[in-house]
Each structure stands twice: as structure tokens, then as C-alpha cells.
Amino acid sequence: MRRSQIFASALLGLVVLVSLLGRISRPGTENLYVRQADAFLRGELAIAEYGWDAAVVNGQNFVAFPPGPALLLTPLVALLGPAATPTVAVSLLLFLLTLLVAWRVLALLALPAEMRFWVLLAFGLGTPLWLAVQWSDGVWFLAHVVAVFFLMLAIHEALGRGRGWLVGLCLAAAMLSRQFTLFAAIFLVVLMWQRSAASGRARWLNLAGFALPLVLAGAGYLWFNAARFGNPFDTGYNYLRVNDFLLLRFKEYGLFSPAYVLFNLFYLFVQGFHVDFTAPNRLSGLEIDPFGTSLLAASPFVLAAFFAHRDRLVWAAWATVTITAFATLFYYNNGWVQHNAQRFTLDFWPVLLLPLALGLKAQFAAGQVRLWQGLIIYAVLLNVLALLLLDPLNELLRAWPTWF
Questions:
Q1: Alpha-carbon distance 195 to 184, whole Å?
Q2: Residue-wise DSSP of 26-94
């Protein structure tokens, strides 16, 4: 890396830290995963009291979301207590570790250090990952941070030594945080098979080792559901206390339906960065669209992924991305509330990182360096505006008319 890139990395790290200041000191009990970890330590499945987005069944409160992050937090909750458990600090640590592992992944793909900087800048600060870290005092975003970390670990191991049992263990941890990351198995299997130097029998045994942790984790998750809700396939999402438009959707169409596809598709690919001026005079009260900004509008550099040479590995990555994105289109919300992002794309962003890196490598070699660097910088600045500058800008807008 150049000295200027090292300086830029330090400066951007400071920007991320500043964006977390308002949330990093919040009590851990605001996060349902901390409450679930506390319940585990008490030998119970139900949490002690209701928290926002908990499932309520027969007067008991449960965390409907998969238990992976709660299991990860359990030792910390045991050591510090629920209120003192710093979920945002934990997410920041996982974020840094994710970028470190991603750096190693890019090295395994033979990207030079200078180019790795740009890919990591795009991935770390030009995608919903920054939003997930900033809002990880909430259960939904902490799940994303944990899932991205373990999925990146799985990709690193599959690209490197390729030990199936370890790849499967990391994917199982990601799946127990965000269920749809399980589709990454398609990519990981192709990756391990293609890069393995072992014989046919050894390859199949390695894939069996990959499948075993997933089977055990899946069985444990089904037991977890059955113990709480009486049905292994009942995740508890049906018992969330939703209101307003979500309640209307749920009552009329259920949790998954083709009725949601067009709305979700529009926000995934079309919707631009949008704010409203909600004050009576429409001069202040700046509010960002809570349904987010589309992938193409918030992270336009993603188009570079289409320039990657389409070998078997890249096709497998695209298959994983397509299937994962397609599945989310049928869900009754698109990740709301979210700022300048479609957070469900984090379920496949670690996989998409490979065609993106290879596509950027090809484009840089073709002389299109400034174009893609500009798009990456644009995406980062848009996130800075949405995640750091929105409140100060609101104050400026309130004061501005009084100067005239």
C-alpha cells in the first residue's frame, strides 16, 4: 500500500469511530441477542421481558431470530453482565477482523496491495456493512455483522487450505445468524472442489466434512424452534408484534408472498438516494427514506463484477448471489428500517466480493482506473452523508432561514 492509502485508511477509521459515538455506550440489554444470551446462562429459552421485535407466545417472550450471535455473546454476557455488554464495540471488532480476512482473501486471488485497498474501501465503507456496524445495538444488524464475518472466514478457508469441516463450521455459524447465507454452500462447494489437489475419494470425504457441521447446526436450529414453538419449522417470526403497513401485509399475504416481489425488486435495483423535508415549511426536518437505497444507486461500483472472467468459480458466485437475492424478494419487508442501503444484500456480499475484485482487476488492467475509483469514492461519500452528516445537516437547515 502507498503511504497515502495508509493515511486514508487511518482517516476513514476515525470517521467510522465518530459515526459510532452515539450508540457505542448504549446498554447491551437493548439488543435481543444479549437478552437471549442471558436466558441461556439462566438455563432458559425465553427472555426475561419483552424487547422490541420479540416474539410473544402464551405470555412468554422469545427471540425469533437465529441464535448464533447470542451464542457468540454468551461468554461476554457472563463476564460483564447484560447491561454492560457492548454490542457495538463487538461489532466494530468483528468488522475490523472481517476486513483483515477479506484482505487475505484478495491476496489469495493475486490482487496487488494497492488494488486490495480499493476493493476493501468499497466493501467496508461503500456497502451496508458500515450501517450494520453503526446500528448493531439492534438485533437485526448485529446478526448481519456476525454472519458476514463467518461467511468471509469460510471463503478464506475454502480459497486457502480448503478444510471442509472448517469451511462448514464457519458457514454453519453464518447460517445460525442469517439463514439465507446457507445458499453460499453452492459457491463454497465449487470453490473447494476446483482448488483441491486431492484425489476423487479425498475430495468427497472433504465435502462430507463440510456437510457435517451444517447438518448438526441445522438439527440444533430445528430443535431450538421445536422447544420454543412446538414445531421445528416454526421460527417464531409469525409471532412478532408488527404494526402499520407490515401488519396489513402480513394479514393479507403472510410472511412470504409473490405480492412483495415488485416492491422489493424496485428497492433492490432502482430506488435512488432519497430524503424528505418534513418540517411544515419544508425547509428542514430532513428524513432519509427508511426503505433504503438500491444496490445500484448506493454502490454503483458493483457493476465492475460483471467484468470478471466468467469461469466456473465466478458462475458459482453469481448463482449464489442470484438465488439469495431472489429468495429475499418474497419476504414481507425489504430490511426496513435502513439508511442508504439494502441490508439483506449483506447475505451475499462476501460472495459477491470475489467477482467484484476480479472485475475491478480486469478493469484496472484495461485502463479504467479513475472511473471505478470515482464510483467507489462516491459510494463512500454517500454513506458518510447518510450515516454521519445527516443530523448536522438537519441543524444547518433549521438555522439557515434565520440568517435572512
A1: 17
A2: S-GGGSHHHHHHHHHHTT-SSBSS--TT-EEETTEEE--S-SHHHHHHHHHHHHH-TTT--HHHHHHHH
Query: Which parts of 164-260 fold into alpha helices (H)?
Result: 164-175, 185-195, 200-229, 244-253
On whether the CB atoms of residues 258 and 302 are closer than 8 A, the answer is no
pLDDT at 201: 86
Q: If you write DSSP's letter for every residue of 334-385 in order, what string do you get?
A: SS-SBSSS-GGGGGTHHHHHHHHHHHHHHHHHTT-HHHHHHHHHHHHHHHHI
Amino acid code (one letter) for 145 = V
Q: Report which listed range, 48-57, 151-160, 194-203, is most confident.
A: 151-160
pTM over 0.85: yes
DSSP label at residue 386: I
How confident is the model over 227-257, as pLDDT tens digits? 999 999 999 999 999 989 999 999 999 999 9
Phi, psi of 332 (to 5 degrees): -75, -5
Give me the residues paired with residue 47 across strands. Answer: 61
